[in-house]
Amino acid sequence: MTKDLQAFSCLVIADESEEFPDALIYAGLLCRYTGWRLLMLRVIEPSDPAPWASITEEMHLQARDAAESLTQRFAAEAWAECGVTAEPILRDGDLKPELRKLLQEETSIKLVVLAAASPPSGPGPLVTQLGKSGGLSPRPVPVVVVPGALSRDEIRAVALPMAAAVSIESAEEPPAPQPPPA
Protein backbone atom coordinates (compact mmCIF):
# COMPACT_ATOMS: atom_id res chain seq x y z
CA MET A 1 0.00 0.00 0.00
CA THR A 2 1.42 3.43 -0.91
CA LYS A 3 1.10 6.73 0.85
CA ASP A 4 -1.08 9.43 -0.71
CA LEU A 5 1.44 10.61 -3.27
CA GLN A 6 -0.79 13.55 -4.24
CA ALA A 7 0.34 15.02 -0.92
CA PHE A 8 3.82 15.35 -2.46
CA SER A 9 4.70 18.08 -4.94
CA CYS A 10 7.55 18.87 -7.28
CA LEU A 11 8.29 22.55 -7.95
CA VAL A 12 9.74 23.99 -11.12
CA ILE A 13 10.46 27.71 -11.55
CA ALA A 14 9.02 29.10 -14.77
CA ASP A 15 11.14 31.61 -16.61
CA GLU A 16 11.82 32.54 -20.19
CA SER A 17 15.22 30.88 -20.36
CA GLU A 18 16.06 28.59 -23.23
CA GLU A 19 16.64 25.66 -20.85
CA PHE A 20 13.47 25.98 -18.74
CA PRO A 21 11.42 23.54 -20.91
CA ASP A 22 14.02 20.86 -20.06
CA ALA A 23 13.37 21.29 -16.33
CA LEU A 24 9.61 21.33 -16.96
CA ILE A 25 9.65 18.09 -18.94
CA TYR A 26 11.90 16.37 -16.39
CA ALA A 27 9.63 17.46 -13.51
CA GLY A 28 6.51 16.56 -15.51
CA LEU A 29 7.75 13.05 -16.24
CA LEU A 30 8.75 12.58 -12.63
CA CYS A 31 5.27 13.65 -11.49
CA ARG A 32 3.55 11.49 -14.08
CA TYR A 33 5.26 8.33 -12.91
CA THR A 34 5.13 9.06 -9.18
CA GLY A 35 1.65 10.56 -8.89
CA TRP A 36 3.03 13.79 -7.41
CA ARG A 37 1.59 17.24 -8.14
CA LEU A 38 3.53 19.52 -10.46
CA LEU A 39 3.76 23.12 -9.26
CA MET A 40 5.13 25.85 -11.51
CA LEU A 41 6.25 29.09 -9.86
CA ARG A 42 6.38 32.32 -11.83
CA VAL A 43 7.52 35.40 -9.94
CA ILE A 44 6.62 38.82 -11.33
CA GLU A 45 9.52 41.01 -10.33
CA PRO A 46 8.78 44.66 -9.60
CA SER A 47 9.51 47.15 -12.34
CA ASP A 48 11.00 50.57 -11.85
CA PRO A 49 8.32 52.98 -10.70
CA ALA A 50 6.91 55.29 -13.36
CA PRO A 51 6.29 58.97 -12.75
CA TRP A 52 2.55 58.33 -12.34
CA ALA A 53 0.90 55.62 -10.26
CA SER A 54 -1.50 54.74 -13.09
CA ILE A 55 1.41 53.93 -15.41
CA THR A 56 3.08 51.81 -12.72
CA GLU A 57 -0.19 49.93 -12.17
CA GLU A 58 -0.65 49.39 -15.93
CA MET A 59 2.92 48.06 -16.19
CA HIS A 60 2.18 45.62 -13.35
CA LEU A 61 -1.06 44.46 -15.01
CA GLN A 62 0.79 43.86 -18.27
CA ALA A 63 3.51 41.91 -16.45
CA ARG A 64 0.86 39.79 -14.70
CA ASP A 65 -0.93 39.10 -18.01
CA ALA A 66 2.39 38.08 -19.58
CA ALA A 67 3.15 35.79 -16.61
CA GLU A 68 -0.28 34.16 -16.85
CA SER A 69 0.16 33.66 -20.60
CA LEU A 70 3.62 32.16 -20.09
CA THR A 71 2.46 29.72 -17.40
CA GLN A 72 -0.54 28.68 -19.52
CA ARG A 73 1.73 27.98 -22.47
CA PHE A 74 4.10 25.94 -20.30
CA ALA A 75 1.20 24.11 -18.63
CA ALA A 76 -0.04 23.12 -22.09
CA GLU A 77 3.45 21.88 -22.96
CA ALA A 78 3.62 19.81 -19.75
CA TRP A 79 0.24 18.28 -20.57
CA ALA A 80 1.21 17.52 -24.19
CA GLU A 81 4.64 16.06 -23.35
CA CYS A 82 3.96 14.38 -20.00
CA GLY A 83 0.21 14.06 -19.50
CA VAL A 84 0.28 16.03 -16.23
CA THR A 85 -1.35 19.26 -15.20
CA ALA A 86 1.10 21.92 -14.07
CA GLU A 87 -0.46 24.09 -11.37
CA PRO A 88 0.76 27.69 -11.83
CA ILE A 89 1.63 29.81 -8.81
CA LEU A 90 2.05 33.52 -9.51
CA ARG A 91 3.84 35.69 -6.97
CA ASP A 92 4.81 39.36 -6.94
CA GLY A 93 8.25 40.31 -5.66
CA ASP A 94 11.85 39.21 -6.02
CA LEU A 95 12.47 35.59 -7.02
CA LYS A 96 14.71 34.37 -4.22
CA PRO A 97 12.63 35.67 -1.28
CA GLU A 98 9.38 34.53 -2.92
CA LEU A 99 10.82 31.07 -3.55
CA ARG A 100 11.95 30.84 0.08
CA LYS A 101 8.48 31.88 1.29
CA LEU A 102 6.76 29.35 -0.96
CA LEU A 103 9.00 26.52 0.23
CA GLN A 104 8.21 27.45 3.84
CA GLU A 105 4.44 27.71 3.21
CA GLU A 106 3.94 24.71 0.92
CA THR A 107 5.36 21.79 2.89
CA SER A 108 4.14 19.33 0.26
CA ILE A 109 7.05 20.41 -1.97
CA LYS A 110 9.55 17.58 -1.70
CA LEU A 111 11.73 18.41 -4.71
CA VAL A 112 12.75 21.51 -6.68
CA VAL A 113 13.81 21.05 -10.30
CA LEU A 114 16.00 23.70 -11.92
CA ALA A 115 17.55 23.87 -15.36
CA ALA A 116 21.18 24.83 -15.85
CA ALA A 117 22.25 26.86 -18.83
CA SER A 118 24.73 25.32 -21.21
CA PRO A 119 28.31 26.56 -21.10
CA PRO A 120 29.75 29.12 -21.67
CA SER A 121 26.90 31.26 -20.25
CA GLY A 122 27.14 29.72 -16.77
CA PRO A 123 24.59 27.63 -14.90
CA GLY A 124 22.11 30.43 -14.08
CA PRO A 125 21.42 32.55 -10.98
CA LEU A 126 19.56 30.01 -8.84
CA VAL A 127 22.00 27.20 -9.55
CA THR A 128 24.86 29.59 -8.77
CA GLN A 129 23.18 30.57 -5.49
CA LEU A 130 22.92 26.92 -4.50
CA GLY A 131 26.67 26.57 -4.91
CA LYS A 132 27.34 29.61 -2.71
CA SER A 133 24.79 29.16 0.04
CA GLY A 134 23.13 26.60 2.22
CA GLY A 135 20.26 26.08 -0.19
CA LEU A 136 17.07 27.74 -1.31
CA SER A 137 15.16 27.43 1.94
CA PRO A 138 15.71 26.87 5.65
CA ARG A 139 13.56 23.75 5.24
CA PRO A 140 15.69 21.05 3.59
CA VAL A 141 14.36 20.41 0.09
CA PRO A 142 16.39 18.43 -2.46
CA VAL A 143 17.19 20.17 -5.72
CA VAL A 144 17.69 18.45 -9.07
CA VAL A 145 19.57 20.43 -11.70
CA VAL A 146 18.82 19.39 -15.27
CA PRO A 147 21.66 20.25 -17.68
CA GLY A 148 20.43 22.43 -20.51
CA ALA A 149 22.42 20.47 -23.09
CA LEU A 150 20.31 17.28 -22.76
CA SER A 151 18.00 16.17 -25.57
CA ARG A 152 14.37 15.26 -24.79
CA ASP A 153 15.25 11.58 -25.12
CA GLU A 154 18.10 11.99 -22.64
CA ILE A 155 15.78 13.83 -20.23
CA ARG A 156 13.29 10.95 -20.45
CA ALA A 157 16.06 8.41 -19.89
CA VAL A 158 17.19 10.24 -16.73
CA ALA A 159 13.69 11.00 -15.38
CA LEU A 160 12.27 7.49 -15.54
CA PRO A 161 14.78 5.77 -13.21
CA MET A 162 14.44 8.69 -10.78
CA ALA A 163 10.65 8.34 -10.82
CA ALA A 164 10.95 4.62 -10.11
CA ALA A 165 13.27 5.31 -7.18
CA VAL A 166 10.93 7.96 -5.76
CA SER A 167 7.94 5.63 -6.11
CA ILE A 168 9.74 2.87 -4.25
CA GLU A 169 10.91 5.22 -1.47
CA SER A 170 7.37 6.61 -1.10
CA ALA A 171 5.86 3.19 -0.44
CA GLU A 172 4.82 2.28 3.10
CA GLU A 173 5.93 -1.29 2.60
CA PRO A 174 9.07 -2.15 0.67
CA PRO A 175 8.55 -3.98 -2.60
CA ALA A 176 8.83 -7.75 -2.52
CA PRO A 177 12.37 -8.94 -3.22
CA GLN A 178 12.94 -10.04 -6.78
CA PRO A 179 14.91 -13.20 -7.57
CA PRO A 180 18.29 -12.55 -9.12
CA PRO A 181 18.48 -12.89 -12.89
CA ALA A 182 19.32 -16.35 -14.10
UniProtKB/TrEMBL annotation:
Domain of life the protein comes from: Bacteria
Descriptive protein name: UspA domain-containing protein
Species this chain originates from: Candidatus Viadribacter manganicus
